[in-house]
Design goal:
The complex is a heterotrimer of chains A (459), B (159) and C (439). Chain A has 459 residues and is an alpha+beta fold. Chain A contains 15 helices and 23 strands. Chain A has a 5-stranded mixed β-sheet with strand order 2-1-5-18-19, with no helix packed on it. The termini of chain A are far apart. In chain B, the strands form 2 sheets. A 6-stranded antiparallel β-sheet of chain B has the order 2-1-11-10-7-8, with no helix packed on it. In chain B, a hairpin with a 2-residue loop joins strand 5 and strand 6. Chain C is built from 17 helices and 4 strands. Chain C has a two-stranded antiparallel ribbon with strand order 1-2. A two-stranded antiparallel ribbon of chain C has the order 3-4. Chain C is globular and about 90 Å long. The chains are: A alpha+beta (459), B alpha+beta (159), C mainly alpha (439). Chains in contact: A-B, A-C, B-C. At the B-C interface, helix 2 and strand 3 of B face helix 1, helix 3, helix 14 and helix 17 of C.
C-alpha cells in the first residue's frame, strides 16, 4: 500500500521532471530558431541599411545595380553571408536578418532588415580621402553611442565574391578598428589620466620637468625626444601638446606617482596589465573588439616607461581609443558604449532590438575627466585649429613605430566640443611618410562632411 | 506580445485554408484522442477497483483511539503491520514490534502471519502464528486493537 | 462491446479519426507523387487498426486503453516513417510495428501472474546469461548487432525488460538474509547487484554508452524502491552513504571517462559544424525550418542525414510535421505511462515493474530528444516507438505489455479456480463416457 503509493509518487516525479525539461526544450527551440536557421547552408536574408536608407548589404547585390565598388568602404565591417569573414555585422547577426520566423517559416515577401547608424556617403568620402594610403577611421556620437563612421582600408569588395582572394592585400578581410594596434603618443592620454587620478590636478600642474632632447632614465637607458634640441622646461599641458617623451619618462619615475596607481587606472580603463587575467573585449552588436593591453614591470624600467608612451608592448584598438574620448568629452569618466544597429525589423515588419544607450563602469573620476578635457581642448585650439570651423575640437596625435621602427603609423584621436555635434573620433594611417596625407586632413573631411550630412538630413 | 499576435495573424492568412484547417483538425483530434483515452482509463480504474473489492472480500481494518476512529483500506495483496515508518499500516505504539505481522490475501481470504514479534499476535484473544481471518475478527498487536470489518458499500461501487 | 463490459466506441472512433486526419494531411500538404503508394499506406494503417482491434475483442482483460494507445502511437509512427523523403509505405517499419504488438501481448501474458513469474525467475536469469553470451561471442565489430541473413538483432535491447523483471523480483523477495561482512544481503538483491554490475561492465566494454544511463536509471529506481520497501530495514545512514557513494562514482566516471566519451561530453556543435556536431546542427536547423506546423510530409530535407530515422528522428518529425504535432506525440507516450497512476497495480511486484518501465522509457526519450537537440551529450539511442529498428520496437512493446499486466493482473487463485473448473468438466465428461459405456 504505502510502497505502492511511493512508487506512484516516484513515477509522478519522473514524469514531471521530463515534462519540465520538455517544456524548456520547446521554449529554447522556439527562441533560438533564428540562430539555428542562420547556420543553414542556404538561407535567404534581408538587407542592411544605413541611417539615410542607403543599402549596405543586399544578398542579391550585383555590380550592375549598385556600381562596381559601391560596397568597398564597408566590405570588412558589414561583411556578407559567405562565411569568409566571421567578425562582421552580417555574420554575427544573421539570425536577425534571416527571412524566417518560427511561426511563419521561411518567407518570400519578408521585411526582415537591419537599420544601422552608419552614414554611408560620409563613410565613402573619408575612405576616398585616404587616397593611396591604408588605415582606418571611426567616429561616433559620444552622447548616444551611434557609430557614424567605421572603415578600414584596405577593404574587400564583396561584389567580387572572393574571386580575387589571392591578390588582396593582407588585412583586407579584417576591420582594423576592432583589432589591436600600437597607440603611439595617444597613449599619453591614458598616462596623463593615471597621473591625474593619482596626484590630483593641483599637484600635477605644478610638476615641471626639463627636456634637452635626450633623457637618461634611472636605469641608465636613453629616452629620445622627437625634437632633438629639446623642449626645455614644461608643465603637463605643454608636454602633452608637445608629446614630449622625456617629460613623461620623468613623470612615470616621479615618486609621487606609484606604478600601482597607474596600473589601477589602466585596469579600470580596460587594459589587460601584465597578462594578469583574461583579455577584455568590447561587444558591438556581436562584433568583438579588442580593448587594450600593456606591460608594467618597474618604474625605472625602459620598457615600462616606453609602454606608458604607447610603444613597447602596449596595444590598443582604435575603437577603444575613440570610446575613451566619450568618457573625457562627457566629463563623467564613464564611457558610452558604441553600437551599430539602431533597430531591426522582423519578417512581418515590426521593429525590434531598438538600440538603447548603455554605459561602461566608472573608468576615472569626473574631475580627472574634465581636466583632461581642458588639456585636450587647449591642444586642439593651439595646434589643430580649423578641423571644424567655428568649433573647438579636443585632440591628441600620435606616431606609432611598428615593425621595429621601420614604419610609422600616424594616429589622431579626439572629440568635438559641441552639444549639437557630439562626435568622438579616431583616425589611423598606416606607414605615413612626410608629405603624404595627414590625419588632420582626413579628420577635416570626416567632421565637415558628417556635420553637413547630420544637419541637413536631420531637418 | 503584440509581435506574437501579429505574426500569428500573418501565419493564419499566409496558409492555404485547407492546409490550416487540416493541421488544426489533426492536432485537435490527437488531443481528443488523448482525452478519450484518459476518460476510458478512469472508467477502467473504477472497474478494476470493483474487481479488487471482490478479490479482497471488501474488507477494511478499523482502529479506535480515544478521539478518532481510523479506517484502513486494504489496497494491496500484502500488507505489513508494524511500528516502523515504512510499514503499510503504521501503529505508533511501543508495544508493537517494528515489523510485527503481515496480512496476505488469496481468493478473498485474508491470512495473518506473525513475523516473530516480541509481544505476539492475537486473533480474538488467541495467540496465533498464522491464521485465516474472517469479517468481524479482532486483531491485537501488543496493546493495539484492530477490527477487520466489511467495507460499507458506497453508491459508486454499485454502478 | 469489449469483455470488461465497458464501451470504447468514442476512443475507437477517435483512434481512426486521428489516423485519417494524419493521412489527410499527408495527402493535401505532403508531396504525394504516386497515388498508389499513398493508397498502400492508407490501407496498411487502416488495415492494421481494424485487425488489431478485432483481435483484442477476443482477449479477456481488464484494460484496453493501453492497447488502443499502443496501436495509435504505432500507426502514427508508421505514417511518420513512411513519409521521410517521399511518401511510400515503409514495409520494414510495418513489420516492426506488428512485432511490437505481438511483443506487447507476450509481455502481458508472461507477467500478468506475478506469483508465477516470481516462481520462474530462474529462467529470466538464464535468459540474461544467454543474451550476455550472445553479445560477447556472436555480435559484429561494434558489439551491437547479430546479423541473421537479412535481419539484424540487437540483443542489448532485450536485456532491458529482463533487467526490470530481475529488479522487481529482487525487491519483493527479501525474506532470507545473509550476513556478508557488515552487510545483510538477501540472495536476490545480491543477484540484482551482480547483474547490474555485469551489464554496466558489458556496456563499457562494448562502447555502448548510450543505453548505460537507461540501465542506470532503472537500477536507481530499483534501489529507491528497495530502500522504501517495508521489509528492507535500511537505516537512513545507509541511504546517505549510498547516495554519497553514487555521486562519488558518477564524478569519478566523469573524470576518468575514456577519451571517446570525453569528446562526446564536450562538443561545441556549432564550432564543429561539419565534424562531430554535424547531425545535431542539421537536426536543430531542421526543427527551425519546420516551425510550429512543419513543411508538410515528405517535403523535409533531413532524410539525407545519417540516422535520420532513429537517432535524430524527433527532429525529422519536427521538420515535416511541426513541433506542435511532434510534441503532442511525445505527450501521447507520456499519457500512456500516466495510465499507471490512474489505475495503480495491486501488488508490489507489479508496482516495481511499472516503476522500472517508466524509468526506462523516460530515460530513453530524454536521451534521444534532448541529446539530438543539444541539451545533453548526443548518444545514439532510439526513441521508443518512433525510431525504426525491430529490436528496439519489440523490447518497447514488451515493456508496454508489462505495464498492461500491472493494470490487469491475474491472481493465482483465479488460475487455480479455472484449473479446478476444467478438471471438473473433464471428470464430468469422463463420468458421462463411463455411464455411456456402462449403459
Amino acid at each position: 500500500m504505502k510502497s505502492i503509493r511511493r512508487v506512484q509518487k516516484l513515477i509522478t516525479f519522473l514524469l514531471l521532471v521530463f515534462l519540465a525539461a520538455f517544456a524548456f526544450l520547446i521554449y529554447k527551440l522556439q527562441s533560438e530558431a533564428g540562430f539555428y536557421i542562420s547556420n543553414a547552408s542556404k538561407i535567404s536574408l534581408g538587407n542592411v541599411y544605413d541611417r539615410n536608407g542607403d543599402v549596405l548589404f543586399d544578398p542579391d547585390a550585383d555590380a550592375q545595380i549598385y556600381g562596381n565598388d559601391y560596397f568597398i568602404d564597408i566590405g570588412n565591417l558589414i561583411g556578407d553571408d559567405s562565411r569568409q569573414m566571421n567578425n562582421t555585422l552580417v555574420a554575427q547577426n544573421m539570425g536577425m536578418l534571416a527571412n524566417f520566423s518560427f511561426m511563419l517559416g521561411e518567407q518570400e515577401d519578408s521585411q526582415a532588415a537591419i537599420y544601422t547608424s552608419l552614414d554611408h556617403k560620409v563613410n565613402r568620402k573619408v575612405y576616398d580621402a585616404f587616397g593611396s594610403k591604408n588605415g582606418c577611421a571611426a567616429a561616433y556620437n559620444y552622447l548616444t553611442g551611434e557609430i557614424y563612421i567605421c572603415l578600414s582600408k584596405p577593404s574587400v569588395n564583396i561584389l567580387n565574391h572572393y574571386s580575387d582572394l589571392d591578390s588582396l592585400e593582407s588585412g583586407s578581410l579584417l576591420c582594423k578598428v576592432f583589432y589591436p594596434t600600437v597607440p603611439g603618443s595617444t597613449q599619453k592620454i591614458s598616462t596623463t589620466l593615471a597621473a591625474l587620478e593619482s596626484m590630483g590636478y593641483d599637484n600635477l600642474i605644478f610638476k615641471s620637468y626639463d627636456c634637452s632632447g635626450v633623457y637618461t632614465n634611472l636605469s641608465g637607458k636613453d629616452i629620445k625626444c622627437h625634437l632633438s634640441e629639446g623642449h626645455g622646461t614644461q608643465n603637463i599641458s605643454e608636454a602633452f601638446a608637445n608629446s614630449c617623451n622625456p617629460f613623461f619618462a620623468q613623470l612615470v619615475e616621479d615618486a609621487g606617482l606609484p606604478l600601482y596607481d597607474i596600473q589601477k587606472t589602466y585596469e579600470k580603463m580596460g587594459y589587460l596589465v601584465n597578462k594578469n587575467g583574461s583579455q577584455k573585449y568590447l561587444d558591438v552588436n556581436g562584433i568583438s573588439a579588442f580593448t587594450a593591453s600593456t606591460t608594467l614591470a618597474d618604474k625605472t624600467d625602459f620598457n615600462t616607461q616606453w609602454g606608458c608612451m604607447g610603444q613597447g608592448e602596449t596595444l590598443v584598438s582604435p575603437l577603444q581609443l575613440m570610446v575613451w574620448q566619450s568618457a573625457i568629452a562627457n566629463q563623467t569618466g564613464i564611457a558610452t558604449d558604441p553600437y551599430l544597429i539602431s533597430y531591426a525589423t522582423t519578417v512581418s515588419g515590426n521593429p525590434v532590438s531598438q538600440a538603447r544607450t548603455s554605459y561602461s563602469t566608472q573608468m576615472f573620476s569626473e574631475t580627472s575627466a574634465s581636466h583632461m578635457r581642458e588639456i585636450m581642448l587647449e591642444n586642439g585650439r593651439n595646434n589643430y585649429s580649423g578641423l571644424l570651423s567655428g568649433t573647438d575640437v579636443g585632440v591628441k596625435s600620435g606616431t606609432a613605430q611598428v615593425e621595429n621602427g621601420e614604419k610609422e603609423n600616424s594616429l589622431l584621436v579626439g572629440f568635438v566640443d559641441d552639444i549639437n555635434f557630439p562626435v568622438a573620433f579616431c583616425i589611423e594611417i598606416d606607414d605615413r611618410k612626410k608629405g603624404e596625407v595627414t590625419t588632420s586632413d582626413i579628420t577635416r573631411v570626416l567632421l565637415q562632411n558628417l556635420y553637413e550630412s547630420l544637419h541637413t538630413s536631420g531637418e | 506580445m503584440q509581435e506574437i499576435i501579429s505574426d500569428f495573424w500573418k501565419m493564419l492568412s499566409s496558409f492555404q485554408i485547407p492546409d490550416l484547417v487540416l493541421s488544426a483538425a489533426a492536432v485537435v483530434i490527437l488531443d481528443l484522442f488523448a482525452i478519450a483515452i484518459i476518460l476510458a482509463a478512469r472508467r477502467e480504474s473504477r472497474l478494476c477497483q470493483k474487481r479488487w473489492l471482490k478479490v479482497s472480500a471488501g474488507l477494511e481494518l478499523r482502529r479506535r483511539s480515544e478521539q478518532k476512529e481510523y479506517h484502513y483500506l486494504l489496497e494491496a495483496d500484502e500488507i505489513l503491520l508494524g511500528r516502523h515508518s515504512s510499514a503499510d499500516l503504521q501503529l505508533k505504539d511501543p508495544s508493537v514490534s517494528r515489523y510485527h505481522a503481515v496480512m496476505t490475501v488469496t481468493g478473498g481470504v485474508w491470512t495473518i502471519t506473525d513475523l516473530n514479534s516480541r509481544s505476539g499476535t492475537f486473533v480474538n484473544d488467541q495467540k496465533v502464528k498464522q491464521k485465516r481471518l474472517a469479517a468481524g475478527d479482532c486483531i491485537r498487536l501488543g496493546s493495539s486493537k484492530l477490527y477487520l470489518v466489511r467495507r460499507p458499500v458506497s453508491e459508486q461501487d454499485e454502478e | 462491446m469489449y469483455q470488461n463490459k465497458l464501451s470504447y466506441s468514442g476512443a475507437v472512433t477517435l483512434l481512426f479519426l486521428t489516423h485519417l486526419s494524419m493521412l489527410g494531411l499527408v495527402f493535401i500538404r505532403g508531396s504525394v507523387v504516386a497515388p498508389l503508394d499513398f493508397l498502400k499506406l492508407t490501407g496498411a494503417v487502416i488495415g492494421l487498426d481494424i485487425i488489431y482491434l478485432l483481435i483484442t475483442l477476443s482477449y479477456k482483460q481488464m484494460t484496453y486503453t493501453l492497447d488502443f494507445m499502443l496501436l495509435g502511437i504505432l500507426n502514427i509512427s508508421l505514417i511518420f516513417q513512411s513519409c521521410f523523403g517521399g511518401i511510400g509505405l515503409s514495409v520494414k517499419h510495418l513489420i516492426s510495428c506488428v512485432m511490437c504488438l505481438a511483443a506487447c501481448e507476450a509481455g502481458f501474458l508472461l507477467t500478468r501472474n506475478h506469483e508465477k513469474i516470481r516462481k520462474h525467475k530462474k529462467y529470466i536469469y538464464l535468459l540474461i546469461i544467454l543474451l550476455f553470451i550472445s553479445i560477447i561471442f556472436f555480435t559484429d565489430n561494434q558489439k551491437k548487432w547479430i546479423t541473421l541473413g537479412s535481419f539484424s538483432i540487437q540483443p542489448s535491447e532485450f536485456i532491458k525488460p529482463c533487467f526490470i523483471l530481475v529488479c522487481a523480483a529482487s525487491i519483493v523477495e527479501l525474506h532470507e538474509k545473509l550476513k556478508i561482512g557488515f552487510f545483510y544481503l538477501s540472495k536476490d538483491s545480491l543477484i540484482l547487484c551482480i547483474a547490474a554490475l555485469c551489464i554496466f561492465a558489458l556496456q563499457w566494454w562494448c562502447h555502448d554508452l548510450g543505453s548505460l544511463p537507461t540501465f542506470g536509471m532503472i537500477f536507481l529506481c530499483a534501489l529507491f524502491c528497495r530502500f522504501c520497501y517495508p521489509k528492507a530495514k535500511i537505516s537512513k545512514r545507509a541511504v546517505a552513504i549510498a547516495c554519497v557513494a553514487g555521486v562519488g562514482i558518477l564524478i569519478a566516471a566523469w573524470m576518468f571517462a575514456p577519451e571517446y566519451v570525453q569528446k562526446r561530453l564536450h562538443v561545441d556543435i556549432w564550432a564543429d559544424r561539419y565534424g562531430d556536431g554535424y547531425q545535431q546542427c542539421e537536426a536543430l536547423i531542421g526543427i527551425a525550418k519546420g516551425g510550429w506546423l512543419g513543411v508538410g510530409a515528405g517535403n523535409g530535407s533531413l532524410y539525407k542525414i545519417f540516422a535520420h530515422d532513429s537517432d535524430i528522428v524527433f527532429a525529422t518529425i519536427c521538420e515535416e510535421w511541426g513541433l506542435l504535432y511532434a510534441s503532442l506525440t511525445v505527450l501521447l507516450i507520456l499519457i500512456m505511462l500516466m495510465t499507471v497512476l490512474m489505475n495503480p497495480p495491486k501488488n508490489y511486484y507489479h508496482a516495481m515493474m511499472t516503476a522500472g518501465v517508466t524509468a526506462a522509457f523516460l530515460m530513453q526519450m530524454s536521451l534521444n530528444i534532448f541529446g539530438s537537440c543539444n541539451l545533453i551529450p548526443f548518444t545514439g539511442v532510439t526513441l521508443p516507438f518512433l525510431s525504426t529498428g525491430g529490436s528496439s520496437m519489440m523490447s518497447c512493446g514488451f515493456l508496454v505489455g508489462m505495464l498492461k499486466a500491472g493494470q490487469s493482473p491475474l491472481f493465482q487463485h483465479e488460475v487455480m479456480k479455472r484449473k479446478k473448473q476444467k478438471q471438473k468438466q473433464k471428470s464430468a465428461k469422463s463420468a458421462q463416457k463411463q455411464r455411456r459405456a456402462n449403459s
